[in-house]
Amino acid sequence: GENVEQHPSTLSVQEGDSAVIKCTYSDSASNYFPWYKQELGKRPQLIIDIRSNVGEKKDQRIAVTLNKTAKHFSLHITETQPEDSAVYFCAASESNMLTFGGGTRLMVKP
Amino acid sequence: GAVVSQHPSWVICKSGTSVKIECRSLDFQATTMFWYRQFPKQSLMLMATSNEGSKATYEQGVEKDKFLINHASLTLSTLTVTSAHPEDSSFYICSVETSGGARYEQYFGPGTRLTVT
After folding, report:
1. Half-sphere exposure of B73 toward its Cβ, with a 13 Å CA cutoff?
2. pLDDT in tens, A66-108
3. Shortest Cα distance from B41 to chain A (angstroms)?
4. Between 20 and 30 A from A22 (CA), which of A65, B19, B35, B71?
């Protein structure tokens, strides 16, 4: 089955700096890579996703890149704000089942 | 996206009792729903795939006789934790699969926090 590794497990940045979270996956057949943001005690919220037919996607301050050859994808948050503080999960999917990474706790210090 | 609700949002039960958690898709007819479990500070772990009108598909290591799933309609799936034990205490989250052609996404419910005393 699919295996997704996520790094780092915790990330602390100053407000205004950029944050990068990286994930690797094992199943070359995976073709859908969503990213979720989860605040404490709440549901994961889809913030951006990318499919295997593109290498990069951007939505305002958030961007995701995908390298299919190396089987890794990354989340980039620019101009971080305190409200970006949360746990972020990457996931990979070949069919309709998601395999999640271990999560990254992002702390943005004002 | 789909709007997904869960009930209850939290529940405390005594060891040995059973607890039913409901997952509703409010604006989308979902043939497929997923149940996840999340322990504190850990990732979401898929427990089972719930298919409307058929038996659920359980992940390895998940006891189907302990975690009963019923998906009797396109808008409702239920997870019943039978003979609950303290180690079953966790955050249970359902999700709804929305798909159209080759595209699919999952939308999550707000979760149910179960505490077994």
Report:
1. 8
2. 999 999 999 999 999 999 999 999 999 887 788 999 999 999 9
3. 9
4. B35
pLDDT digit string (tens) for chain B, length 117 residues: 678 999 999 999 999 999 999 999 998 888 889 999 999 888 899 999 988 888 899 999 999 999 999 988 889 999 999 999 999 999 999 999 876 555 567 889 999 999 999
Distance between CA B53 and CA B43 in Å, rounded? 29
Question: Does the beta-carbon distance from B49 to A97 stay under 8 Å?
Answer: yes
In terms of Cβ atoms closer than 10 Å to its own Cβ (0-12, 13-18, 19+), residue A65 is: middle
* Residue in A52, A53, A70, A36 with CA at minimum distance from that of residue B106: A36
Q: Quick check: B97 and A100 CB within 8 A?
A: no
Q: What pLDDT, in 10s, does the model give residues A25-75?
A: 999 999 999 999 998 878 899 999 998 888 999 999 999 999 999 999 999
DSSP for A28-79 reads TT--EEEEEEE-TTS--EEEEEEETT-SEEEETTEEEEEETTTTEEEEEE-S
Q: Quote the DSSP letter at residue A85.
A: -
B92 CA: distance to closest CA in chain A (Å): 10
Q: Which of B34, B44, B52, B96 to mutate to probe the A interface, most A CBs <10 Å? A: B44
Nearest-angstrom CA–CA distance, A38 and A91:
13
- Residue B68 buriedness (CB in 10 A; 0-12 / 13-18 / 19+): middle
